[in-house]
Design goal:
Elements: H1 11-26, H2 30-55, H3 69-77, H4 79-84, H5 86-101, H6 105-111, H7 115-151, H8 161-187, H9 191-214, H10 227-235, H11 239-243, H12 251-271
Helix pairs in contact: 1-7, 2-3, 2-5, 2-7, 5-7, 5-8, 5-9, 7-8, 8-10, 8-12, 10-12
């Protein structure tokens, strides 16, 4: 019986697999529905938080132990990495889990039987979609937050170089979160299960864990290696960091940790989900 010969790994074939995976992302309505949902959520959050911080002058008074205008502006402009990262995370996760739910993973593997390459292609293909989602989320926080702060008589630092840097890093953070989602979906291919875990962890488990760990001096430094904290470090600040100042990673360290989570999840999925017979 003759063994099946796999196609040679030429650059053209590799780029073709990535293009195919990008088309899968763009062929569904999920990514732009989630993008628009993120825009709506960030519009509400940025306007509300900007109004709340600038409504009472005591909220912007360093002499009373409150954050200054620069810190408040930063916390507003990084709302998307702090609260909205669940949207690109879910987009990435569902891009994998939907293939298992609708059994399209079988023809996908027939087209590209090398499973490691396929997982890598899916991780890379998530980046353009994550970038679009990241741009929309970050610009919404910047535009709505800055406009509201200005209308309230505060200092928005709209075109300050540090603000531009924060917006760019926030966009990068959300882009990487889409890749983390792909890795997570690879490890947990059950669609309902993965969504429940994502929502529970991002909205409840990690925020509570971060506050709890920060109260114990012996393990407090560990909190900055949690995925949400790493994402906020990459973005350059966050609402959590403004309200509860703690040591954070450098921006590049946060980026490496976040990418590490994506690779770790994908590796787990490769040796579990993608190791089994699928069909």
């Amino acid at each position: 019986m003759t063994a099946m010969t796999l196609p040679a790994p030429t650059p053209a074939r590799i780029s073709g697999v990535i293009r195919s995976e990008v088309r899968k992302f763009l062929s569904t309505r999920l990514w732009w529905i989630m993008a628009l949902s993120l825009v709506g959520y960030m519009t509400f959050m940025a306007a509300m938080m900007s109004f709340a911080f600038n409504f009472d002058a005591d909220m912007v008074d360093p002499e009373m132990g409150m954050p200054d205008a620069r810190e408040i502006a930063t916390s507003i402009y990084t709302l998307a990495p702090a609260f909205g990262y669940v949207f690109p995370l879910i987009v990435g996760a569902i891009s994998i889990t939907s293939e298992f739910r609708h059994q399209t993973i079988t023809p996908t593997l027939l087209a590209e039987p090398r499973r490691t390459r396929l997982v890598a292609a899916k991780l890379i293909a998530s980046l353009p979609v994550g970038l679009v989602v990241g741009i929309l989320g970050s610009l919404t926080c910047w535009a709505v937050g800055g406009a509201t702060i200005t209308l309230m008589g505060g200092e928005a630092f709209l075109f300050d170089p540090e603000t531009i840097r924060i917006v760019l890093l926030s966009t990068l953070t959300l882009t990487i979160w889409a890749m983390v989602g792909v890795g997570f979906g690879t490890a947990i291919p059950n669609q309902i299960g993965s969504i429940i875990i994502v929502l529970a962890f991002t909205q409840f488990v990690e925020p509570i864990a971060r506050m709890a760990i920060a109260q114990v001096d012996a393990i407090a430094p560990a909190s900055k290696f949690l995925p949400g904290a790493a994402g906020e470090a990459l973005a350059g600040g966050s609402f959590y960091g403004t309200m509860m100042p703690i040591d954070a990673l450098e921006w590049w360290q946060g980026g490496l940790v976040l990418i590490g989570y994506a690779v770790l999840f994908a590796f787990i999925g490769r040796i579990t989900t993608f190791r089994k017979d699928i069909g």
